[in-house]
Amino acid sequence: MKTLIKHGTCITAEDTFQSDILIEDEKIIRLAPNLEIDSDLQIDASEKLILPGGVDPHVHLDLPMFDTVSSDDHYTGHKAAAFWWNNHLYWILLILE
User: Is 45 in contact with 3 (CB distance < 8 Å)?
Assistant: First the structure.
């Protein structure tokens, strides 16, 4: 299956840039602006951020809130992050509305 993500803002550890992303069988095949390729699914990522799958953009560890404490402590939070990174090498689309 081919998926084409169009007009996204890609964020890496080194750079931020506008790009389209072609994904085939869960692997990134190409990153380039203005790709014109037939695909099974096309996603418009205009005004959206695209982050590597191993990035957790928001987390609370041991945070007191609403008469309780967030479910992850530092040990379980870091273990979950390591598991995610090792098992999800594809990018995720983070929809910010």
Answer: no
- Sorted by sequence, the CB contacts under 8 Å of residue 54 that are 6+ apart come out as 81, 84, 85, 88, 89
**pTM surpassing 0.85?**
no
Q: Report the candidate in 56, 2, 6 with the shortest Cα–Cα distance to residue 31.
A: 6
Question: In the CATH scheme, what is the code of domain 2-94?
Answer: 2.30.40.10
Q: Model confidence over 8-18: pLDDT tens digits?
A: 999 887 889 99
71 residue type, one letter: S
Nearest to residue 20, comparing CAs of 40, 1, 12, 42?
42
